[in-house]
Amino acid sequence: MTKKELSVRAIKNGTVIDHIPATHLFKVISILGLDKSKNQITFGTNLKSKQQGHKAIIKVAKKFFADDEINKIALVAPSAKLNIIEDYQVVDKKTVTIPEQIVGIAKCFNPKCITNNEEMVTKFSLVEPEPLALKCQYCEKITNEEHLEVL
Amino acid sequence: MKDKSLVSITDFSKEEILRIVELAAEFEANPNQKLLDGKVVSSLFFEPSTRTRLSFETAINRLGGGIIGFTDSSSSSTSKGESLNDTIKMVSNYSDLIVMRHPLEGSARYASEVSDVPVINAGDGANQHPTQTLLDMYSIYKTQGTLDNLNIFLVGDLKYGRTVHSLMMAMSQFNPTFNFISPDSLKMPDEYKLFLDKQGIKYYEHHEFTDIIEEADILYMTRVQRERFSDPIEYEKVKNVYVLRNAMLDNTKDNLRILHPLPRVNEIHTDVDANPKAYYFEQAENGVYARMAIMASILGVK
Ligand SMILES: [Zn+2]
């Protein structure tokens, strides 16, 4: 038995999202709408990780994410790794990539932007994934990694 | 173009820009056409801008349309804390078209998303002012007879000046040569130069405002504003360097015209005003015809 399985119980069928930064666990849960899900969900946080200090892990039973659904977490958990589980076996592994359109996740750095002054959903297009540059579809200004704030 | 909002100059294709320019010429030849009879246009100025508002309202009146709206946000429901969403939803029930000026950047894009009727951006903070660009292009077309293959000099604040950025982007579709004249602290940002490189458009950067302007077809002057400088000494150094005087125009081309979005401070000496190459006052008047063309196109009456 691996350490991981000791921390968070294994699932029979579903998806394991591993290598989430511990600080962003609840953001990932909210972005994926897992707080409203009826599926059986187990998670662990502040687990030790060789790569990133403290990580979190989420196991969602009987749930298989579409790529555009799971890619929404790429801004907050770019190093996330997915294991697709069928009958306790890992049948597929996936990573996440930042989508071309980012809706409702990031905050525009421009204080004079309408998105920071009105109750509304933010929208960005991806200009550059590395180093990260997002263009606000409203004020047309670029928010970069240094100024990125996740809502 | 019918029912299409105009938020950013890039919303209009090259063909659409040409169509506006040609239509503006038609309206100038025959300005009183009651094409908007029975239509209502909302003129929503969340911040005052008398120059732009009067130009739009003249255009609406010449087209025979009705106007509702407000001239600054203190007389609107926004001052009672109403959201932009709610104001736009209400107003779009009353009118066929919304003309909007707002201090926040991106407000016009957002309004165009929540509105049931098209929105024309009359300036959203430091972001976009596309009708200014279209009137500039009409002025260029009218004075040069074409938009193609022109040598365009942009002078002054090329860093923060949104009018020069929009004009540059739009003119890039017509194979221009650009010359940028500015102090180093206000030079054309790299992202725009990168854009020109990608389009294969020639441009030259200069610090000195000298006889290089002899090659110009269009000399587009802008304000160098004190508040753009963190160092007041730097401002004092450059404020009198980028000033156009009549004597500098002696050897310039006959077809040269001088444009400026107005109001000016001191960047064009008043001794230029009497020179036939000075075009900034006519340019402002062209705004009425350009805005008539834009509104008539969007409302599908022309
Ligand atoms: Zn923004």
UniProtKB/TrEMBL annotation, chain B:
Pfam families in alphabetical order: OTCace (PF00185), OTCace_N (PF02729)
Aspartate/ornithine carbamoyltransferase carbamoyl-P binding domain mapped to chain residues: 4-141
EC class: transferase
Sites where the protein binds carbamoyl phosphate: R51, T52, R101, H129, Q132, L262, P263
EC number(s) stated in the UniProt entry for this protein: 2.1.3.2
Domain of life of the organism encoding this protein: Bacteria
Entry binding sites for L-aspartate: K80, R162, R223
PROSITE patterns: CARBAMOYLTRANSFERASE
InterPro entries: Asp/Orn_carbamoyltranf_P-bd, Asp/Orn_carbamoylTrfase, Asp/Orn_carbamoylTrfase_sf, Asp_carbamoyltransf, Asp_carbamoyltransf_Asp/Orn-bd
Main function: Catalyzes the condensation of carbamoyl phosphate and aspartate to form carbamoyl aspartate and inorganic phosphate, the committed step in the de novo pyrimidine nucleotide biosynthesis pathway.
Protein known as: Aspartate carbamoyltransferase
Designated gene of the protein: pyrB
